[in-house]
UniProtKB/TrEMBL annotation:
InterPro entries: Sec10-like (IPR009976), Sec10_HB (IPR048627), Sec10_N (IPR048625). Belongs to the SEC10 family. The gene is Exoc5. The lineage of its organism: Eukaryota, Metazoa, Chordata, Craniata, Vertebrata. This is Exocyst complex component 5. GO terms for cellular component: exocyst.
Amino acid sequence: EPFVADEYIERLAWRTPGGGSRGGEAFDPKRLLEEFVNHIQELQVMDERIQRKVEKLEQQCQKEAKEFAKKVQELQKSNQVAFQHFQELDEHISYVATKVCHLGDQLEGVNTPRQRAVEAQKLMKYFNEFLDGELKSDVFTNSEKIKEAADIIQKLHLIAQELPFDRFSEVKSKIASKYHDLECQLIQEFTSAQRRGEISRMREVAAVLLHFKGYSHCVDVYIKQCQEGAFLRNDVFEDAAILCQRVNKQVGEVFSNPETVLAKLIQNIFEVKLQTYVKDQLEEHRKSDAEQYLKNLYDLYTRTTNLSSKLMEFNLGTDKQTFLSKLIKSIFISYLENYIEVEIGYLKSRSAMILQRYYDSKNHQKRSIGTGGIQDLKERIRQRTNLPLGPSIDTHGETFLSQEVVVNLLQETKQAFERCHRLSDPSDLPKNAFRIFSMLVEFLCTEHIDYALETGLAGIPSSDSKNANLYFLDVVHQANTIFHLFDKQFNDHLMPLISSSPKLSECLQKKKDIIEQMEVKLDMGIDTLNCMIGQMKHILAAEQKKTDFKPEDENNVLIQYTNACVKVCGYVRKQVEKIRNSMDGKNVDTVLMELGVRFHRLVYEHLQQYSYSCMGGMLAICDVAEYRKCAKDFKIALVLQLFDTLHALCNLLVVAPDNLKQVCSGEQLANLDKNILHSFVQLRVDYRSARLARHFS
């Protein structure tokens, strides 16, 4: 523990008798002082003893330090001597090594020609055996030494190539025969080793055959045996992928050029197995069933390209992308050259069949419709606007538009776009996609939607028809829905194929022309509004009575508004709802505004036909209030404003004569022509009274 002087003194005083108050004992300072003096003396003696011990230890340490320094100096001298000896030894070793290398070079210079001479002597010996016609050497007769025999015969074969034929024809023939026999034996040995699964033996034999002409035949045998039992399932593409995966792991252990062997295996699979399989699948339907042919072509090409993507993982040489692309092209080139013609032919016949089947189900024989451009359509609008309508065609409520037909046509076209994307050459893709789009336009837009619009236009009844059914709005509603589906396919499936080509502007222009042509025909359907107004006129003429606004008993009027008003408002609300359901966007507001303005004009002109008593005027105001409530359903500010003004005009029918001028100068009537105000005042039964005429003048 650390030494603390205060605690030490306290303990000393506590142990001394009389040094504290322990046990009630009196404090004795003399005794405590004596104890302190004695203890100080003891501490001084202890200090002197310890000091002597420290001095002794310091002297001993200094002595040992001098001895250690002397020993270190001696070791440094010994180390310097050893280092000098090491340098001398290193120089001597370098000298000896130089001599040894020089001697080795001299020995190699002597030994190499000697080895060549020995090897040449052996070859001459073997060559003599071929000259004599009898092979006696163990290397040729012992089957276990086939590797050495192969090395010798390969060298003799090369030598024989340089000898003149006229003198050595027989020996050359024998060497060639032996060369061929050994080559066959090696290939047979390789085949047997492959069947036994002996990779090391296969590698050994392949290394020997590498210098023979039959090395490629060895590779062919390996490829052939690899495929034995590999294609047992129905999925030839999956089998091929598994086979290549297995061979890829093995080929590097057997051959010195594994990428070449694997590439040759893949080429063999493509040119034999896959090409045969593709031909069998496609030729069966090529002329008899275009739909199945196109489906099979798309499926086979997709599966082949997917297999190619898997094979890209393997080492096949420098340009494996080009290599695999050429293999795919070699299989499908005869089918892809005329693909788009088959596609267009099938799409045309299939679309025509879908439409014809639909019209047959409706027992409908398609009529020839007017053809021509936008200008021709606009001219027809002008003629229909200025001339009375001809006899209409009764469609019996049929719109001749079918969601099922549209979905089928769009589905066929979608599949055609997918096939086009996969099977078309990149340079031909935009052109081919445009041709498919043109087919869709022809059969969906022209033959189906446009025909339905034309038929719907022809089915619009004249404005004076009674109980006319306005089916054209149903046509508009369905055509609008269908065109949204058409537009979605345009954006989702066509745009990605043509977005970066000049065909984009051509497709957009074609789509724009279609939209404009349909909008023009929809505009022609504005005759539907005339029919609506005609129906309203018919209701008013049939239901409105002159006594409604000039009752015989002024004090016994119990109705809030006339029966004609109720029926007209009910009819208008139905038509407004139908228009909202049939159209979207700004077209709704445009049509409702036109209908609202015509509705106002009809009510205005209708009210001008009657004379009004005081109570009749009140009833007219109630009718107009109901018409105004109906006009709110239009949600068009102009229409509501027109009916607000009409309601204000009707107040002139009941206001007291003295207040006429005040009412006419009100906010809603102040800006109206005075003749209009006068025409309403004239409808009052009391107009001819001098008092009223005087107040209004």
